[in-house]
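Journal club prep — side note

Before the paper discussion, L.F. wants everyone to see what a predicted structure for a comparable chain looks like in token form. Sequence:
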Amino acid sequence: MLGQDSNGADTVEVIEVCDGATVKMSYRALAQLQATWKWGWALLRRAPAIQAGDARPCRVTVVVATRNRANELDQLLASIKQQTIDPRQLSVIVVNNGSTDSTQDVLRRHSGGLNLTVVTENIPGKSRALNRALEIAEGDLIVFTDDDVIPPPNWLLALQRASAKYLSAGVLCGPVTPEFPAGTPDWLRSHALGVLFFARFEPRLPEGPLPAGVFPPGANYAVRTAALGNLRFDLRLGPSQENGPLYDEDTEFLSRLQARTGRSVVVPEAQVIHRFEPSRVELRSLFERSFYYGLTKGLTRRSPLLVPMWLMRLRQIALNIARLSFRDASEIERFETGCLFNFYSGQLQGFQRRNADHCVAILKRLLKNLDSPENRVLLSKPAMSCLDNVPGSAPASVA
């Protein structure tokens, strides 16, 4: 019924069925509630079909490629042993990708408590190692993770349950939260580039489909074996002996898979923690990785991936007005400039290898704008070598 609240605003009285309780709300609040309901219903309609009646839990195979991370692998396997999933439905495949540390000892020690298969691939290359695992994987759901990940006990059970719930989803994934070493600056922990450098993946979404074009990182996703078919990782991407520490092997793989199956489904309960060594948060390491990320884009894109100058200027204004110490603001600016300088240098090398002269010319102009004595010290060794070997683009001749 109609009425008025203490402020004289019109209200609608809603009669609750339970215990005869009543709730009063304004027309505006009611409209907002209706809009929220319509949005939620639309989201449900977009979700993959949920088919009831498949009570058989799927068999889960965890796949890990490892190289010279014996201590991290030891902790990962110990965490997998603590999973609440029925152990009869779980198998693990670890590909020892040319390790020279105590990895083999770790694998022998854990073989007694896990249904563990060890594959040896001596040629370093993550994509090659993962493809070796896919050759023998037999589970209904193949779960990919990294050797420096710590999953909570409910990780695999959450993915298994989601697999039974979203039968039409070819890919399921969970959040990835970085665990930084002590002493990592607060600004770096929360920086937007954490998605790239630290595989941060924390979508603020309920369980259900991810937006189109969004791909989870390699540390936490699962693929339905029936949807996989003969699909394999591209050997030209990912870290390898022949190509160096390139990126995007998982993104490229998932983009082809999702073209067959539709969008991924995110499962918030299936979260993992991704740990990092102290050396990986040092600027010199981040600048080098920026170079190789740029190199990956230069080898795979049709045109350069550019950061608009207006965005750089807007970022500078934001730094000026943000409540940051002068030291933090200067460090952030140095970090972002160094990442961009190295990123463009990597792209330059990639397009140079492909003889894409137009793209090379664009990147040379951008590098010229970034060149200055204070910025040159931000170049990583591979970036410096790249610019030294490209006529007309070395730091000394850019200016």
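L.F.'s comment for the group: Residues 1-53, 394-399 have pLDDT under 50 and may be disordered. Keep this in mind when we get to the figures.
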